[in-house]
Design a protein that fits this description.
The complex is a heterodimer of chains A (113) and B (113). Chain A is built from no helices and eleven strands. In chain A, strand 6 and strand 7 form a beta hairpin. Helices cover 0% and strands 52% of the residues of chain B. Chain B is built from no helices and eleven strands. In chain B, 36% of the residues are buried. Classes of the chains: A mainly beta (113), B mainly beta (113).
């Protein structure tokens, strides 16, 4: 079955710097890759996603890139702000398995003012 | 998107008892999912609950321990049965939309003593 690996587990950056989180997946048939932000005491919030027919997607300060050949995808946050501090999860949806999500292990991002 | 609410938001239970968690969606959806998030960990899918059919459980989760109901297109319940301290986790429901996007509820924080 699908397996998603996420790195790093913790990331600390200065306010205004960029942050990059990387994920790899094992099932080449997976076709949908969302990213979630989870703040303390809350449920995961979908922040951006990408489908297998697209290489890059951007939404203001966040962007996601997908390399299908290498089976990895990355989250890029530019001009980080203290409110970006949270745990970020990547996930993959295996093809034709009812839409379930397989999650990475999570990255705790800390943005220092 | 979808707005999802869960009840209760948190609970402290004695071992050997059962707790039923409710999940309400603000629109009709075909797919609902239940996840477990153990302390400091990522999310693991427990089961998929589609209206009108039996829930589909992932490896390591069984119906006797986690019975699920899905009486209509906006509501589902998950019961954690015969609880032990190892069941202390956050339990999250989510709903899948047509484009694979999944939106999560705020979670139910369960502590078993």
């Amino acid at each position: 079955g699908e397996n998603v690996e996420q790195h790093p587990s913790t990331l600390s950056v200065q306010e205004g710097d960029s942050a990059v989180i990387k994920c790899t997946y094992s099932d080449s048939a997976s076709n949908y890759f969302p990213w979630y932000k989870q703040e303390l005491g809350k449920g995961p919030q979908l922040i951006i996603d990408i489908r297998s027919n697209v290489g890059e997607k951007k939404d203001q300060r966040i962007a996601v890139t997908l390399n299908k050949t290498a089976k990895h995808f990355s989250l890029h946050i530019t001009e980080t702000q203290p409110e970006d501090s949270a745990v970020y999860f990547c996930a993959a949806t295996p093809y034709n398995q009812g839409g379930k999500l397989i999650f990475g292990q999570g990255t705790e991002l800390s943005v220092k003012p | 998107s979808a707005v999802i609410s869960q009840k209760p938001s948190r609970d402290i239970c004695q071992r050997g008892t059962s707790l039923t968690i409710q999940c309400q969606v603000d629109s009709q959806v075909t797919m609902m999912f239940w996840y477990r998030q153990q302390p400091g960990q990522s999310l693991t899918l427990i089961a998929t609950a589609n209206q009108g059919s039996e829930a589909t459980y992932e490896s390591g989760f069984v119906i006797d321990k986690f019975p699920i109901s899905r009486p209509n297109l906006t509501f589902s319940t998950l019961t954690v049965s015969n609880m032990s301290p190892e069941d202390s986790s956050i339990y999250l429901c989510s709903t899948g939309l047509a484009g694979n996007e999944q939106f999560f509820g705020p979670g139910t924080r369960l502590t078993v003593l």
